[in-house]
Automatic annotation (TrEMBL):
This is thioredoxin-dependent peroxiredoxin. It comes from the Bacteria. GO terms for molecular function: thioredoxin peroxidase activity. GO terms for cellular component: cytoplasm. Residues 5-160 form the Thioredoxin domain. Thiol-specific peroxidase that catalyzes the reduction of hydrogen peroxide and organic hydroperoxides to water and alcohols, respectively. Plays a role in cell protection against oxidative stress by detoxifying peroxides and as sensor of hydrogen peroxide-mediated signaling events. InterPro entries: AhpC/TSA, Peroxiredoxin_BCP/PrxQ, Thioredoxin-like_sf, Thioredoxin_domain. Keywords: Antioxidant, Disulfide bond, Oxidoreductase, Peroxidase, Redox-active center.
Length: 161
């Protein structure tokens, strides 16, 4: 397992595929704060609620000068359908199957459900400053109210810089 970066560490810089084509990596957002939220799977109840929560607050994130990026292992075509189905505003990226950003962050982990062990994404959110340094980490996120909590922390970080 990879050592998990903590606040004060630089965000690993791994390229991912964007839902609308091309690639994206955390360093593409240098010069502005970034919220990267990792979620397990498109179009599942918790993940849909989380993405809709960030979409509802995207205007406030934009106003604060904070970029958003949602990440899962789903392929770009699935992300595109998910975005269209729920009119999502936050851009989504597909993390590579192996050696991706989730691996570098130590959040692609063994999970268990109904006695079965499998690899899965640990729902985690990172607030990264304009220089690419991790400011805050939310691990094992509970979806309800999460986007608002992240927005408040991002707004505070922008004011305090």
């Amino acid at each position: 397992m990879t050592t998990r970066p903590e606040p004060g560490d630089t965000m690993p810089d791994v390229a991912m595929e964007r839902a609308d084509g091309g690639t994206v990596k955390p360093s593409d957002f240098r010069g502005q704060p970034l919220v990267v939220f990792f979620y397990p799977k498109d179009d599942t109840p918790g993940c849909t609620t989380e993405n809709i929560g960030f979409t509802a607050l995207k205007g406030a994130f934009d106003e604060a000068g904070v970029a958003l990026l949602g990440v899962s292992k789903d392929p770009p075509a699935k992300h595109a359908k998910f975005i269209a189905k729920h009119d999502l505003a936050a851009p989504l990226a597909s993390d590579p199957a192996e050696g991706g950003l989730a691996d570098a962050l130590g959040i692609w982990v063994d999970k268990q459900m109904y006695g079965r062990t499998y690899m899965g994404m640990e729902r985690t959110t990172y607030l990264v400053d304009a220089a690419g340094v991790i400011v805050r980490v939310w691990r094992k996120v509970k979806v309800k109210g999460h986007a608002a909590e992240v927005l408040a922390e991002a707004q505070k970080a922008v004011r305090d810089r």
